[in-house]
Each structure stands twice: as C-alpha cells, then as structure tokens.
Design brief:
single chain, alpha/beta, Protocatechuate 4,5-dioxygenase, Chain B, two-stranded antiparallel ribbon, globular
Length: 241
C-alpha cells in the first residue's frame, strides 16, 4: 500500500470531548478526552488530514472552514486549517467541529478537509466512496492521515439518547472488536437497518473506513480506548497501512 496514507485514526463525535462545554463534568470523560488527544498527536506527522464523518446530509468542508460550538452552549471557535480567517459558522457539521477542535490542540499546522456522509448512505455507496477516496489519496503524494469521526450505538442504557435497546451491547462489542483487530470485512457487513434501529449513525463512516483499506485491511490496528459513559459507544484507536 502506498505510503502517502500514513495512518487512519478513529475518534468519537460527542461535544463532551470539549471541556469548555462540560464544566465540572469534564472529569467524567477525562480518560476519553486524553485518548482522543493522544491520537491527534500521533497524526502530526501528516501534512494533511482527510476527515470522514456522518450527518443528515452530504457536505464537503475545505481546510479554510471555521466553525463554533455556539450551538452547544459555548462560542468556542475552531478551524480546519492554520491562519484561517472569517466568521465562525455555527452550522458547521459536528464531525468538522470535532476534527477542528482536535487539530487546533494537537496539530495546528495541519490542514484538514472534511467529508460528511449521510447516515443513511447504503453500504454499496459507502464502499464506492471509500474506494474513490483511497484512489485520490494514493494519487496525491502528500503524506496524509485519515480521521474517522464516528460513534457506536446510542442505545446502550436507559438514559442514552436513543433509550435502551437490548441488542446494542452485542453490536457495540462486535464493532469494538472489529476496530481493535482491523477487521474491515466486519465493518463492511454492518447491517443498515439494524444500525438505524440501534441509532448507530456512525455506520456509514465505519464502512467508508473499511473500503479505504479494502479486503486486506490494515497492516496493524489498535484500540486505545472504549467506553460508553452516557449510553453511547465511543471507540478511539488507529489503523496503519
């Protein structure tokens, strides 16, 4: 595999990663936040990040984008590139906000472009997009890191955003196991209907990750953190080609 893709990292998308948004509750997610920041620091060797996340509709955000967490309670600005100017966009999709926050704090010289994939994208379209993305990465000789911003199911407890679903734990454990060993086939096989039922909105991003690596998967894989502090599955780690 070409060396221009130096690594693919995965982090979750909750605004609670940002301590300014959680106040005294920030200590409850300190381990999760530390793991995410460690991953960002490992990606500093890249000249650029390509970010993939999910949302309600497709979007492409250039590395000149600036956003703010104002919609989550604090007017904290983040940017997808160095020396960016302009008025922060309060409507910037959450994956871009999280990527910008991580970039600002761990790799401020890196430029990050963001692709938001609709959460209901079919597995076939996710695979096609992932293959196209890998082709574009291999054609560009710039050392690049892929950053996937995605969650597990949001139905792990009664107080979870999607309430409790009895099948969520098994699926989240399977997702975590696939990420830990680099099982791209298991990610590609995630069932869209079941994921919708489990409020596993990150499914499309996970399947793009699988397609970027293809049937061979990564040469090395590791998960550095898995937890579900508020009934949502969060996984942090790295795949290396």
């Amino acid at each position: 595999m070409a060396r221009v893709l130096i690594a693919a990292a995965f982090v979750p998308s909750p605004p609670l990663l940002v301590p300014e948004l959680t106040g005294s509750a920030a200590a409850e997610t300190a381990d999760l936040r530390a793991a995410v920041l460690d991953v960002g620091a490992e990606l500093r060797a890249a000249a650029q990040w390509v970010v993939v996340g999910t949302g309600t509709e497709a979007a492409h955000l250039p590395d000149t984008a600036v956003g703010t967490f104002r919609g989550f309670g604090v007017d904290l600005a983040v940017s997808l590139g160095p020396a960016t100017a302009g008025t922060p966009d309060p409507q910037l999709p959450l994956p871009a906000l999280i990527a910008g926050w991580l970039r600002d704090r761990t790799a401020p010289v890196v430029r990050a472009t963001t692709h938001v994939v609709p959460a209901d994208t079919t597995p076939q379209d996710c695979a096609r997009f992932g293959r196209r993305l890998r082709g574009a990465l291999d054609a560009d000789r710039t050392p690049t890191a892929l950053l996937v911003v995605a969650d597990g199911p949001a139905t792990l407890t009664a107080k979870a955003p999607g309430a409790y679903h009895p099948g969520a734990q098994e699926v989240d454990e399977a997702l975590g196991a696939a990420l830990a060993v680099g099982d791209a086939a298991a990610l590609a096989a995630l069932d869209p209907a079941l994921c919708t039922e489990l409020v596993l909105d990150g499914r499309a991003a996970w399947q793009v990750l699988a397609a970027v690596f293809g049937s061979d998967g990564p040469a090395a894989a590791a998960t550095t953190h898995s937890s579900a502090p508020y009934g949502v599955g969060y996984h942090v780690g790295m795949w290396r080609p």
